[in-house]
Structure formats: C-alpha cells, structure tokens
C-alpha cells in the first residue's frame, strides 16, 4: 500500500495514520505521498516540496504536489503529457494528466493507495486536487483507491459561492464543478467525481465516519484541530477562508505573515477605519469588521506597515463567507480605484468563473448573488445522490 497523507492524518489519540496502520493492522506501507506543503507542513503555499527518504517512518515520501502542479492546469483535450489516452478520451477519462499524477514506477508496484488528509471545505483548497490526481493514477494502474473520510470542518450543510465552470477554469485549485463552499466531505466529492467523470472506473472504497452529522462544525466533533496547512491555524481561519481565499489573487495582503491569516486583510494605502465603517454599514449577517494594523513577516508587503480590517464572525451559521468577501473586494475596488488590482487569470481560477471578477469591477453584485444562489440550489439537488451522511 501507498499512503497519501500529512500531519493531519492522525487517529483520535493523535497517532499518525502510518504508525496506526502498522501497529494495529500490520499493513505494509511501501511509500508515502505528501500533498502541498509537505508531510510536516514545512513549505509555504506554492513552494516546491522535494521527495525524500524519511528516517522517522523508514519510507520514501514522494511529493504529490511536485508531480501535479505543472500538469493539472492543462486545458481540456490538450495533447501534452505522457501516459494519457487518445485525444478524444482525455477530458472524459482523466480531468488531469494521469501519467504525471503519481510516479508510474512507484504506483505500478502497489496493490492500493490510501488517502488520509483533512480538507477545509473550500473548493480552492489543494487537498481536493491531490485527491483527484491520486484517483487518476489509481484508475490508470487499476488498483484500489481507499479514502479515510474526515469531517467537513465548516459543516456539511452550507453551500455558498459559484459553481466552477469546469471546461473554462479548471485547475489544481478547481478540479470539478462544485461550489466554492461545497458542504461535502472528501469521500462524498470522490464518489461524485468517480460516478460523473470516471464512470465508476476508479476502484473507490470510502471508509465512512461514525457519528458525524452534517450540521456539525469541527469543534462539535470533540477532536483536536490539527492545522492542515501553514496558514490554516484554526477553525476560525477555515470559516473565513470560504471567501477570503479570493484575496490571494489580488494585490491586497490576505494576512499571510501574521498570526491571523485570512482573518486580516489590508495594504499600506488602505484606510482601515473607513473601510470597516463602510463594510459594517452593509449589515452583512453574522459578521463585523474592525480596523486593523499589521506588518507581514513574509509574503505581500513583507516588512511594511499595512492598514485594513479584521474579520470577526459573530454567528457562523448565518455567515456567508463568499458574499462577505466579494462585498469587501467591491468596496476596496470602488474606494481605491487605480491602486487595487486583480490578477485576472488567477482570480477567475479561484472563483471558478469570470462573472465574479466582472461583477466586482462593474459593481453589479445584486445580479451576481442571485445567479450564485440559483446555482447553489441546483447543486444541492445534484449532490443528494452522493451524500453519505444524513
């Protein structure tokens, strides 16, 4: 067996999956694969993760992220990439380059690959990209893909944000047509993709959870939070990330390099008090903004004094992260036209559509939110067939 995991792959007593499998079930784990940030989360976002032999576990850890990032943004029907099927079959069979997903020479020697990482419930989080690419490799080599399901930390009820336009904007941060906040577990998303993309050809086995209900947030489970990436330190971070991820594709600091990434946003040229006042005047349910001043230690505006806002979620069940973040972005665009910038391609990949960017630029948010609401309602009906928990 091969194991795709990181330091979130732990038992309820915080024993790593690899140790647990070996000690309790005598499973022979030949190798491991680590998603973005590496097994121990030592690398920052987008940084390459080198494959290496791990003395602690006594196995080689291959970087799934290193193998995936260059290939996963290929357009539908692209002829580039070894090991793929003929041109007419590519988009239907493999949404990514299956020949580059996991190293062929390693996977071909395995009986199964087990996937065990904690997701955060937002489509743009790269754990989903790693999962889909692993599924592609398992399908290619006709081996079992086993997934240890874990809670959606921001609950399995709320569906918010636009549905990805798959043929136009798929990428490693958008691997399938689901909303930005999808309200599903990794096992449920895998079941949907296996049915609709792979037509059941992935030998998928989801090991379901016991006693998890869809309305639960992570702190309702009683389990300790193990941060799944360097800038996801708390459940509060994951709660706002459902919309704040969009700030990554702007020239506004999303709070990386501070103790509250994604909960704090700003830039040297923003008036934080004025911005907070305007945002609060909108009376967006479940949230308030307060003025913030900060100096990032890395990433955007490293070492520069920034002004902006801190997001304080007062009622997380009423909070719509996508709507809040888009309203903040539109306000900044309007107040600081000429200084505020969106990175067009990157923003559209994160949003999953160009409509969000265009609506922010044009100030036509009412039409956007109504369109997204209709998309989400349709998706909620579609996902019913793949929900594993009541």
Strand fraction band?
5-15%
Largest sheet: 7 strands, mixed
Domain module count: 2
Secondary-structure content class: alpha/beta
Q: Whole-number radius of gyration? A: 21 Å
Word description of this protein:
It is a single chain. Residues 68-100 have low confidence and may be disordered. By secondary structure, the protein is of the alpha/beta class. The protein has two domains: 2-228, Rossmann fold (3-Layer(aba) Sandwich); 235-353, Aspartate Aminotransferase, domain 1, CATH 3.90.1150. Helices cover 32% and strands 15% of the residues. The chain has helices spanning 17-25, 64-68, 90-93, 98-101, 104-107, 127-141, 166-169, 186-196, 235-244, 272-281, 321-335, 344-351, 355-362, 365-383; strands at 2-5, 31-34, 52-54, 59-63, 112-116, 144-148, 160-163, 179-181, 203-207, 264-267, 287-294, 306-313. The chain is built from 14 helices and twelve strands. A hairpin with a 4-residue loop joins strand 3 and strand 4 (59-63). It is globular. The strands form three sheets. A seven-stranded mixed β-sheet has the order 3-4-2-1-5-6-9. A three-stranded antiparallel β-sheet has the order 10-12-11.
TL;DR?
The protein is built from 14 helices and twelve strands.
Compile the SSE list and pairings.
Layout: E1 2-5, H1 17-25, E2 31-34, E3 52-54, E4 59-63, H2 64-68, H3 90-93, H4 98-101, H5 104-107, E5 112-116, H6 127-141, E6 144-148, E7 160-163, H7 166-169, E8 179-181, H8 186-196, E9 203-207, H9 235-244, E10 264-267, H10 272-281, E11 287-294, E12 306-313, H11 321-335, H12 344-351, H13 355-362, H14 365-383
Parallel strand pairs: 1-2, 1-5, 2-4, 5-6, 6-9
Antiparallel strand pairs: 3-4, 7-8, 10-12, 11-12
Helix pairs in contact: 6-8, 9-11, 11-13
